[in-house]
Amino acid sequence: MQTTLRSSVSFDGVGLHSGEPARLTIRPAAADHGIRFRRTDIALGDTCIPALWDQVEVSPLCTRIVNRAGVSVSTIEHVMAALAGCGVHNALVEIDGPEVPILDGSAAPFVRGIVSRGVRLLGKPLRAIEIIAPVEVRTQHGLARLSPATGDGLSMDFRIAFPDAAIGEQSKRLDLANGTFVRELCDSRTFCRAADVDAMRAVGKALGGTYENAVVVDGDKVLSPGGLRHADEAVRHKMLDALGDLALAGMPILGHYEGDKAGHAMTNALLHALFATPEAYRVVIVDESTAARLPGAGVRQAEIPAVA
Fold first, then answer.
1. 81 and 241 in contact (C-beta within 8 Å)?
2. Of 17, 89, 256, 264, which residue is the catalytic one?
3. Which of 212, 207, 233 lies closest to 223 in space, CA to CA?
4. Per the annotation, where are the binding residues for Zn(2+)?
5. Which H helix or E strand runs over 222?
6. Which residues contact 241 (CB under 8 A, 6 or more apart)?
7. Rounded to whole angstroms, how far apart are CA atoms 217 and 145?
8. Domains of the chain
9. Helix (H, G, I), strand (E, B), or coil: what is residue 105?
């Protein structure tokens, strides 16, 4: 069945790119509501934005959704990953600023807040998008692909390559069933190269970034205090981002996602390609055995990494 939170939960922080303070509150919602964001700091007009693939305004450094009235919310990928990874299908996400607070740079604080409130079953069946034929997008830098599942749920392969030895080449494959997202991915933080910080700030990005909410690397050095949470934290974070961006499909995806140097824009382009290819997917009613394989199934408080 579809789900929502049992009660509301709030988070306070600053936006990674804007540097502006914001309070974000995730509230329960009815069946078929989906995930929607609402700007509480805007008094007039349409302040709601559905968290859907066709509301995305392409940005290389974050996922930003915009409605027809021009109202937007940026950097939604971590909270979207947390909702998907905890099995929450319906919620109203209220925010009093233009950007989701970055918190510690991962999805773990959102996960801990969601799990602390619990998930409630609703009275309508859950639908999912089953991939039945491959769809992919390519650029000169990489690719993103969806193909039929090898099991009943969602699995993911990701590869990255960066010149800094502290990151280098990394790859990882995960079956995201049974709380894998919470155990393996949710605490992995966003990262950047020290060489890119000044360039980002020159164009108004990373204004809220610190060594405490992002992993900053310089050559073979990790500049952030405490170092890495995982030796392959960078590729894990890319997988976290991909789950959040895939959640903009509006339903869980049953299939295999492959990303090779893929980012937010490429994953969104992949969803555009998917929905433009109706023979590549079908919408199915989720049965009990499939529900047990979805990313949010079996999530337990004790499995959340201690950093959250």
1. yes
2. 264
3. 212
4. 78, 237, 241
5. strand 221-222
6. 63, 77, 78, 81, 263, 264, 267
7. 29
8. 3-121 (3.30.230.20), 128-303 (3.30.1700.10)
9. coil
What Cα–Cα distance (Å) separates residue 135 from each residue in 173, 280, 282? Answer: 19, 7, 13
- The tokens describing 137, both together, are 């997008």
pLDDT digits (tens, 9 = 90+) for 64-75: 999 999 999 999
Q: What string of H, E and C letters represents the secondary structure of 159-180?
A: EEECCCCCCCEEEEEEECCCCH
Mapped to the 3 state alphabet, what secondary structure does 41-78 carry? CCCCCCCEEECCHHHEECCCCCCEEECCCCCEEECCHH
Average confidence (pLDDT) over 231-252: 97
272 is catalytic: no
Mean pLDDT of 5-21: 94
Tokens representing residue 270 in the block = 């992949």
Phi and psi, residue 291, nearest 5°: -60, -35
143 Cβ contact partners less than 8 Å away, ≥ 6 residues apart: 136, 137, 258, 259, 260, 261, 262, 266
Question: Of 84, 75, 68, 55, which is closest to residue 11 (Cα–Cα)?
Answer: 75
If you average pLDDT over residues 164-185, what whole number do you get? 94
Instruction: List Cα–Cα distances, 58 to 30, 126, 207, 267, in angstroms.
Output: 29, 29, 19, 10
User: Tokens in use for 118?
Assistant: 């619990």
The four Cα atoms 152, 78, 106, 290 give a dihedral, to 10 degrees, of: -10
Rounded distance, CA 268 to CA 18, Å?
A: 22
Tokens of 177: 């069933």
Average pLDDT estimate for 261-268 = 96
pLDDT for the residue 308:
47
Q: Where are the alpha helices (DSSP H) in the chain?
A: 77-85, 108-117, 180, 194-202, 233-246, 264-275, 288-291
Higher pLDDT, 196 or 132: 132
- Calculate the dihedral angle through the C-alpha atoms of 254, 170, 201, 23, rounding to the nearest 10 degrees: 40
What is the percentage of the chain residues whose pLDDT exceeds 90? 81
